[in-house]
Design a protein that fits this description.
This protein is mainly alpha-helical. 68% of the residues lie in helices and 0% in strands.
Length: 378
């Protein structure tokens, strides 16, 4: 989940930047957008045919923010291996470090979500979490098994966890056969599945999403190769490439309508991944300068530091404000949305900052229990 990586070894190159700047800022902005999406989603019923004012339609694409998270995750995780010949330094070591980084804040957020779902507001219309919910979500297998959710944002954690297990295999294919073969091997079966579905548009369920979203994760892995490419490749106008790749998707969405776009996320996810990847490449190579400067401001870096915590805990807070607090003060619809922005958004950000100080950043800064305990004592 971190954007920094040490310099490349064994390649003879010494001009690589020791740290890739701006990625944490992008991660923070994506998490903030997801919060806004959920404020919008749970205020106005009927998604995707929402009853919200048209000028708020830009908030309806929370799914694409999660897709961006997955592209960014693949990109960030692959930077260090790219600098070391596309090797992880050991599969077991990689998986242990991922578990150490991801699971403690996730499990803490799970406990918090269960308490809020049981005693404040249910997390979904499927009912209260059960013992099965604790087992399924505790083991992070929600993309495989179905259970009443304690937190609707947790679905992507199950997907990402499965992709972590596949990451060493993806690196092996990248190392032995190259980026093009890796992308084709993961993407073509997904395209084939989509073409064979009824109406060439597969209907997605609540889980089983990892095979569909694996190509966007792999796109990020492939894009990380540019970080260690020649200076000529690094200096290409990747920002413009990203904009050009995004134009067809944007035009199609505008022409066909936002509801059509949401109903065709299976294809939209795949179509938008190249643009997202090239945006990451542009930022990683320092362009556009204005955007990179903004992403590396203190506020953006701070937001990126606790963006994972913000993603994990914001939804129960948003739902509690909308379902339990807002009805006592404002009317339905736009007044509730504005009330939620004024209350749930700052509370979520502050709570996530505090949550990260306890459950996320200590595990980010310390790589073992011994180091964690010593840090706590000091």
């Amino acid at each position: 989940m971190t954007a920094s990586a040490r310099g490349e070894e064994g390649t003879g190159r010494t001009n690589l930047p020791p740290q890739v700047l701006g990625l944490d800022g992008l991660r923070g902005l994506a998490a903030l957008y997801v919060v806004l999406f959920h404020c919008w989603l749970y205020t106005f019923p009927g998604y995707p045919r929402s009853t919200a004012p048209g000028w708020l339609d830009g908030l309806m694409f929370g799914r694409l923010a999660v897709v961006f998270f997955l592209v960014l995750s693949g990109f960030s995780l692959a930077i260090a291996p790219a600098r070391h010949g596309w090797r992880t330094g050991g599969v077991g070591r990689f998986l242990r470090r991922r578990a150490w980084r991801i699971l403690p804040p996730y499990w803490a957020a799970l406990v918090m979500s269960l308490i809020i779902a049981w005693f404040v507001v249910p997390a979904s219309h499927y009912g209260l979490p059960t013992g099965k919910s604790i087992l399924v979500y505790g083991l992070v297998v929600q993309d495989v098994f179905t259970a009443p959710t304690p937190n609707g944002a947790f679905w992507s954690i199950g997907v990402e966890s499965e992709l972590y297990l596949l990451f060493p295999l993806f690196l092996f294919v990248r190392r032995k056969l190259g980026a093009a073969v890796l992308v084709a091997a993961v993407t073509l079966p997904v395209i084939g599945r989509g073409m064979l579905a009824s109406g060439a548009n597969p209907v997605e369920g609540a889980n089983g999403l990892t095979p569909h979203l694996a190509p966007v994760f792999v796109a990020g892995i492939a894009g990380a190769g540019v970080v260690v490419a020649s200076e000529r490749v690094r200096r290409l106008p990747w920002g413009w490439f990203a904009a050009l790749a995004a134009v067809p998707v944007l035009v199609l969405g505008v022409v066909r309508g936002f509801v059509w776009t949401v109903n065709h996320y299976f294809w939209v996810d795949l179509a938008v991944a190249p643009a997202m990847t090239m945006l990451l490449v542009a930022v990683a190579t320092g362009k556009p300068v204005v955007l990179v400067r903004f992403l590396t401001t203190r506020a953006m870096r701070s937001l990126g530091d606790f963006s994972y915590s913000l993603y994990l805990i914001h939804l129960p807070i948003v739902m509690a404000v909308i379902r339990r607090l807002a009805p006592h003060f404002v009317g339905r619809g736009l007044p509730t949305f504005l009330f939620t922005l004024g209350v749930a958004l700052p509370v979520s950000v502050l709570a996530a900052w505090l949550f990260a100080r306890v459950f996320e950043l200590p595990f980010k800064r310390n790589r073992s229990w011994r180091s964690l305990v010593a840090s706590a004592r000091s």
